[in-house]
Amino acid sequence: DIQMTQSPSSLSASVGDRVTITCRASQSISFYLNWYQQKPGKAPKLLIYAASSLQSGVPSRFSGSGSGTDFTLTISSLQPEDFATYYCQQSYSIPKTFGQGTNLEIK
Amino acid sequence: QVHLQESGPGLVKPSETLSLSCFVSDDSISSYYWSWIRQPPGKGLEWIGYISYSGSTNYNPSLKSRVTISLDTSKNQYSLRLSSVSAADTAVYYCAREGIRGSTYYFDYWGQGTLVTVSS
Predict the structure, then answer these.
(1) CA distance A80 to A92
(2) CA proximity to A35, closest of A105, A101, A80, A81
(3) How confident is the model at residue B27 (pLDDT cuts 50, 70, 90)?
(4) Which chain B residues are Cβ-neighbours of A1 within 8 angstroms?
(5) Which residues of A touch B111 (CB under 8 A)?
(6) Is residue B106 within 8 angstroms of chain A, CB to CB?
(7) Which end of chain B has the smaller Cβ count within 10 Å, N or C?
(8) How far apart are CA A46 and CA B1, in angstroms?
(9) A4-34: per-residue pLDDT in tens?
């Protein structure tokens, strides 16, 4: 199985901050990397697919980059509704695997 | 906009079989791949497996011996069966559609999730 490791596991930030979350794969996954946002009691929501493509309807303050083993999710200016848990997920091989999550909290 | 809705018992006894269904609101069930994903309380996400529009399946090796996913296009639904459950199978179970763009796949539509507790 491909292991996905996110850092940090938790992060405190303020409204307006620029935030970056990192995801590292245990082997190369090309650009087959997706990012999701999950709020308490809700299903995950797709933000970014194929490492850098913004899902329809997702605000442009979200962006993704990377290829191979190292990827980043950046939120350019945090909004109050962005405080949530973020997961990366690889779709390169079976079984599809997720990172452990990054909990983004209000400072 | 496709909607997915899980249904099934919220309580299952240890050693019994967990059975859930996911209703898909439109005919896209005949065109995509359909997954089950679970999340133990307070923990991360685990992919269980998928079934394609043609009925082919692929399962997480960690669960493969206990999992069956089936498809009923006439009812616009697909189902999960997980046998010999234990407390470790207690989780919120999500159904999700696997969208595709080129060669890349992603979970673009999700059900709201249903909590299944394994307890006697």
Answers:
(1) 33
(2) A101
(3) confident
(4) 61
(5) 43
(6) yes
(7) N
(8) 14
(9) 999 999 999 999 999 999 999 999 999 999 9
